[in-house]
Write a structure and sequence with these properties.
Elements lengths: L2 E5 L4 H12 L3 E6 L2 H10 L4 E5 L7 H12 L4 E4 L12 H29 L1 E7 L12 H23 L3 E9 L19 H13 L4 E4 L1 H10 L4 H4 L9
Parallel strand pairs: 1-2, 1-4, 2-3, 4-5, 5-6, 6-7
Helix pairs in contact: 1-6, 3-4, 4-5
The structure holds NADP nicotinamide-adenine-dinucleotide phosphate.
Length: about 240
């Protein structure tokens, strides 16, 4: 029986992925800050789910992850879905710094712990949900796009490190476009909005096939392809809009 740990499974894409893995016979360890949601989820499948309340921005999160793995009885797949992001055209420093705390500090804390666990075990699959926002600097969400770029680069670097160390660790970096989840809740209108169920299904396929980098969906693959071709002097003038 396969075992997966999902950090950030109390809502959104992570929660959907958890449901899909359960339906495919996996046992899962789930984490997030909202203990009540973790417990409600666990009670639906008490024989297949273990939980741990984890705030990735706290130092204790590393011990929390190790406890969760122990409760689960091992870990074959690690998926980091935890993340925050807000539009911040006023460049409120509190929003920027909170985003950095969760998406880079918290990310690094969890991903390094998972890497060390798999290194000791001899194999494993380390996956993260970053975003297409990491592929370009977005003026409406500077910290969000910068932290997502950090995540893309970090996984690329870890893959090289694992190769240097001759480790059998697989890596997957999932990069969705806009998905209708709590993360986007607010008054903005987002174009090409995807359903979380559809994104989670594609994500699980990518995990099972050990795909390395996955942009969801095909429309966003086209967008990323073309906006990477835009030279810097033009990108600066481009307004990436979401309507209120
Ligand atoms: N929605 C989109 O358009 C979109 C697009 C591309 C990428 N993504 C990425 O997809 C991932 C999942 O986001 P989502 O859209 O599913 O949004 P979501 O519903 O808000 O889910 C975010 C998850 O992260 C957890 N989380 C946030 N801060 C945390 C912390 N400090 N410690 C532990 N867990 C924390 C939340 O749980 P608690 O609140 O219980 O802690 C929740 O389970 C994020 O990394 C996001 O950047 C989203």
């Amino acid at each position: 029986m396969k075992k997966a740990v999902i950090i950030g499974a109390t809502s959104g894409i992570g929660e959907e992925v958890a449901h899909l893995l359960l339906s495919q016979g996996w046992h899962i360890g789930i984490a997030g800050r909202r203990s009540d949601r973790l417990e409600a989820f666990r009670l639906k499948h008490p024989d297949k789910i273990v939980t741990e309340t984890i705030d990735v921005t706290h130092e204790a999160a590393t011990e929390g992850l190790l406890r969760l793995i122990q409760k689960l009885g091992g870990m074959d797949l690690f998926l980091l879905s935890s993340g925050i992001g807000r539009q911040n055209k006023n460049l409120d420093p509190d929003i920027e710094l909170a985003t950095v705390q969760t998406n880079t500090m918290g990310f690094t804390r969890m991903v390094t712990a998972a890497y060390h666990y798999f290194k000791n075990q001899g194999d494993g699959h380390l996956a993260v949900i970053s975003s297409i926002a990491g592929t370009k600097g977005l003026g409406t969400a500077p910290a969000y796009s910068a932290t997502k770029r950090f995540q893309n680069t970090y996984i690329e670097a870890l893959q090289q490190l694992a190769y240097m160390e001759k480790l059998n660790i697989r890596f997957t970096d999932i990069r969705p476009g806009f998905v209708a989840t709590d993360l986007l809740s607010g008054q903005h209108h987002y174009p090409l909005l995807m359903k979380k169920e559809k994104v989670a299904k594609r994500l699980v396929d990518a995990l099972l096939n050990h795909e390395r980098v996955v942009i969801i969906d095909w429309r966003y693959r086209l967008i990323v392809f073309f906006w990477r071709l835009i030279p810097a002097f033009l990108w600066r003038r481009l307004t990436v809009r979401t309507r209120k």
